[in-house]
Design a protein that fits this description.
Blueprint lengths: L1 E5 L5 E5 L6 E5 L10 E6 L5 E7 L6 E12 L5 E11 L3 E6 L10 E7 L7 E12 L2 E6 L7 H10 L1
Parallel strand pairs: 1-5
Antiparallel strand pairs: 2-3, 4-5, 6-7, 6-9, 7-8, 8-11, 9-10, 10-11
């Protein structure tokens, strides 16, 4: 089984042996700028070997299945609006699945609206920027994060 190991801001990953629970901090700077997934095979001093996957994202991502809508308005005034599903959410953004191929490109700014599946069914309305487009999947970053914004407060509680 492969462990997921988060990389701290200083490019240090804490590796923990699943056999003896020995831990060690390792500098993983050389993997920082690689675009692909990084898997490492680690040999512990106890003789055990194990695999780790380096998680270089800044924020924890939660898998979800939250229906909502998105609205994109082009510079020419044309509007694309449609249903979407939030498949992952983090403090920094969302991963969406849309029903129709988007008519915008990476860098486009648009709005998303969806309800969390918390007790309050909190409504989230956020402006986002498309960072990744792959078929009907969109990776989007929140344009602003403000601790006093009710949506951002709700997201903070939802993720922790």
């Amino acid at each position: 089984m492969t462990q997921t190991v988060f990389v701290a801001d200083n490019n240090i990953a804490t590796l923990v042996c699943p056999e003896c629970n020995a831990s060690k901090n390792t500098d993983v700077t050389k993997y920082k700028d690689l675009e692909k997934l990084v898997r490492l095979k680690i040999k512990c001093t106890c003789g055990s070997s194990y695999s780790v996957m380096l998680e270089r994202r800044r924020h924890y991502r939660k898998k979800t299945n939250l229906p909502g809508t998105y609205v994109y308005s082009s510079a020419g005034g044309q509007q694309q609006k449609g249903p979407m599903t939030v498949t992952e959410i983090s403090r920094g953004g969302v991963r969406l699945k849309v029903m129709v191929l988007p008519r915008f490109e990476v860098g486009a700014t648009f709005y998303v609206e969806f309800h969390l599946d918390d007790k309050q069914q909190t409504l989230i309305k956020k402006e986002v920027t498309a960072k990744m487009l792959a078929d009907r999947f969109i990776g989007a970053e929140f344009c602003s994060i403000d601790p006093s914004d009710p949506s951002d407060k709700a997201l903070g509680f939802y993720l922790f």
